[in-house]
Amino acid sequence: xxxxxxxxxxxxxxxxxxxxxxxxxxxxxxxxxxxxxxxxxxxxxxxxxxxxxxxxxxx
Length: 59
Known about the structure:
Layout: H1 3-15, H2 23-36, H3 41-52
């Protein structure tokens, strides 16, 4: 198990009952996180780019 799995499991436990979240909501939370933790700007940018391109057949 990766260390990040604990955070992912907590996310599921705390937010898993919600019917849906919007991409706009997620984007705002990511912006807030980077504002508070600027040292994570590059990993968050990579995650956002990866999520944005999930359906791209070229990659």
